Amino acid sequence: MAALEYIRLGPEHLQGLPRDLTVFTMVVSPIEVHGRHLPLGTDIFIAAAVRDRVVRALEENRPEISFVNLPHLYCGSDALPYPGSLSVNAAFLEGVLTDYCKGLAKQGFRYLVVFDNHGGPRHHLAIASAAGRAWKKWGFQLIDPFIDIYRRMITHDPELLSMTGLGPAECGDDADNHAGTNETSLMMAVSPELILSDVQEVEPSYPPSLGGAAKIVDLIGRFFETVGRRRTGADLRHLAQAIAWTGQEGFLPYMGAPALASKEAGEAMLGAHVKISASLIERALAGEDVRPVAILEALSFLRRLPE
Asked: What are 237-249's pLDDT values in tens digits?
């Protein structure tokens, strides 16, 4: 059975859905500049394609599950600070998602899966915080597979690299973090007709050297690594790279090498997204707590800072 559309349903139809076997889905993303070669809705198009593939995969294996798609939420934090991006404060995003969970939980439902493809740190912190509040208040599971996938990408997780056949600088890591090889490949696989220009003509954008605030954050990260706080240290060093890139005067609104993208690499990454996402949903349905752990979780107060 194809996924239902929430806004097309009536209250009687909702009432008839099994509470323990109904999974709501929602694409959540800011509108964001992705270089001159990709559209502003890149993250949305990719996330929606992942959602549809995950639903199809689970419907084949678990036909007893009912999927209900909520409308896209064009709302996200830490969009690239470049003319054309539209972003909201993380506290606002957290509040919206918490209230969505509350509304579903009051109807007796238990699961909402957020699909996104956006790596903003406060964006992830907001989603993870909303997930924590929903779990504690209502025993409701807000699941965001991309938070797990994103950490795997930037840390060169061996399982992810094995699943995709991709390597550093082509898997969405710090050297390929935004609209580079990985995201351009994903768009080639998802919606090639929406690519705006010949990617072969887009010059690569390389990570800059660290200086100023970025260098200080990197040094703090290295200190945390030396005292055994490896995850916190790695998160801070990732943040340092982002600060260095977006802090440059006249920085390019993409990071990586779009010219190296391919549809095959995009399909490989999509396959990994689907496999990891489906596994998290299965684990949640089995009663496991699969709340997301965001990058910079140790500095969760950052989500309260204005953009």
From this structure: 999 999 999 998 8
State yes or no: pLDDT of 88 exceeds 80: yes
pLDDT band at 298 (very low <50, low <70, confident <90, very high): confident
Structure tokens given for 234? 């790695």
- Does residue 186 form part of some domain? no
Residue 80 CB partners (closer than 8 Å, separation 6+)? 32, 33, 34, 178, 246, 253
CATH number (domain holding residue 124): 3.40.50.10310
The H or E element that residue 91 is part of is helix 90-106
What would the mean pLDDT of 302-307 be, rounded to a whole number?
A: 85
Within 13 Å, how many C-alpha atoms sit on residue 198's CB side?
Answer: 2
Ramachandran area for residue 255 (φ above 0: left; ψ -120 to 50: alpha; else beta): beta
Is 241 inside any structural domain? no
Cβ neighbour number for residue 133 with a 10 Å cutoff? 18
> What Cα–Cα distance (Å) separates residue 118 from each residue in 77, 114, 209, 229?
9, 12, 24, 25
Q: Is residue 1 exposed (0-12), middle (13-18) or buried (19+ Cβ within 10 Å)?
A: exposed
User: Does a structural domain hold residue 23?
Assistant: yes
Count of C-beta atoms within a 10 Å radius of residue 19: 11
Torsion over CA of 211, 217, 222 and 224, rounded to 10 degrees?
A: 170
Please answer whether residues 240 and 210 qualify as being in contact, where contact means their C-beta atoms are separated by less than 8 angstroms: yes
Print the domain residue range for 54: 4-175+266-304
In a domain, 227, yes or no: no
Sign of the torsion formed by the C-alpha atoms of 32, 177, 167 and 128:
negative
Structural domains counted in the chain: 1
3 state DSSP class of 282: helix
